[in-house]
Amino acid sequence: MTISVSAANNVSTHGTKMKTKKFSIAFVNDIHAQLEPHPELFWQGDESERVHNAGGLSRIATAFKQLEAQRPHGMLKIDGGDTFQGSGPGAWTQGEVMVRPLNALGFDLAIPGNWSVAYGAKQLQTLSEKVNYPMIAANIFDAKTGERSFRPYLVKEVNGVKIGVLGFTDPDVPSRQPPHMSEGLNFQAAKVLQPLIDELRNEEKVDVVVLVTHIGLHKAVPLTRQLRGVDISLSADTHERTYEPIEVGDVWVVEAGAFGSLVGVMDITMSEGKIVDRQWELIELREDKFAEDEQVKKIVDEVLAPHRERMNREIGHTDIWLERYNVMSTSMDRLIADAVKESAGTDIALSNGFRFSPPTAPGPITEADLWNWLPLNLEIKVGKAYGQQLIDYWENEFENVFSKDPLRMYGGWLARPSTNMNVQFDSTAKANERLRSLEIDGEPVDPEKSYSLAAGARKGQPEDQIHRVKRCHVTKQIEQTTHDAVRDYLANQGDVKDTGKPPVRCVVRPEVLRSQYLDFIKRRQQEHEADPHEAELLDENAQHDDPQTTVNSSSDSSKKETKDE
């Protein structure tokens, strides 16, 4: 689907035709180290699924070449971040496996994502120096020197149009990811952006300002509304598939899915220094539409060759699709949480609402699949918590995902419990009033009863915290890791034929909720565009620095919880 808007009919008030200039932008985001084609699920406008083999850097290369050939006026190629993390080879090489294939794609620039610090600040710098295009980020600073770690923007001229591209990475990286990952870096809030936009306009004299953010669509939309002088807003982080652009005044906000399965292209027509026409298309990189580029495929095969044996090692078999495209519960995560519970021998287990990992199709389950599901292999921590702590935990999780304040929406989708826990909630209720029922093994949770629980333990996590349940007691780490748990579970269970009923259900929404933004936040933000209480993302004080503070029921407010997604 191609979306087009014309601002005017290219005729001046004196009846003479105005001279126009065109340029284009090709945009990908959240590749998550998925170098090769993979099974993918597509949907658009309804819940029906269409299955295709799709993606891979070789198909991105083909798409880029085709788009450039169709656009002799010139095209920028931009990567929105979270590129080096998310697969086994990515983890095993600290992102190095991505460098050669990425350098063959001809990117003009990229920004770091929240997972760009997965291998530490020093390795992020190393990777940024090895790719043959610049990384930009206005708000990442060296903690010792106070200097910016990356240039804040890049100015490029395409077909006579001077374009300023400004990068912004999530300022909450030190709390979203384990803090040790970003040690040595400081992340500043969106307040840094407006002076730089003004600089691009007044000093660099650019014709167009493109803002590239890795903060999620739910924050990119209100941020775009608050800034002056932005023409195009490219969003990343939430893996949203915006087949239709989101209009914020005169600005389009778009996001291009994830895993290299889609490429977005925007065509812009300028006249007398103003945008007079725009077109946007989100392109599915399906095998029936795009062949693999042979040169890039050869490079990918070469860099993956040392890892093939490990990647292809079979650890199980599934008769069903294992996927992660639902805000509330997924087949992939039900399997993982049940595996951790069985391995730990606890009453329940909890897992993160991760977004990364393309689907696993029916057939063999390999080590490569396991590392796609869980790119961090965490030791399992066990302990006990009272029922009231679990109740509080779920209320906080609901606020993280369904808050009416974009600043309080945090991390990934809802946490994933083992399937013997039954959680029912109303997403439209007020904070701390969303939970409708909570059961374990069919029995209502007793606030005063102690329950054993297990989850992967993050480095730097408080000793008395399991997942995001605070003040647990009798905690300890066991020898098993999350990967061990899944391998053992698959070995014991045999072929995966079913992963059980979804343990988390919203009583006012369909069971399948594909999008955190498009399915419910967009409508809410449109209704409240003029709301004077809308979160001010530009306010430095709007950052919630204490990652351990829970929802405050008396004030109906919350602070961000340490949560990687």
From TrEMBL:
Keyword Nucleotide-binding among record annotations: yes
Biased composition (Basic and acidic residues): 523-547
Region feature Disordered, mapped onto this chain: 523-565
Positions of the 5'-Nucleotidase C-terminal domain: 327-454
Gene3D superfamilies (alphabetical): 3.60.21.10, 5'-Nucleotidase, C-terminal domain
Domain of life, source organism: Bacteria
Keyword NADP: no
This protein's UniProt keywords: Hydrolase, Nucleotide-binding
Family: Belongs to the 5'-nucleotidase family.
Name of this protein: Bifunctional metallophosphatase/5'-nucleotidase
Organism (species): Novipirellula rosea
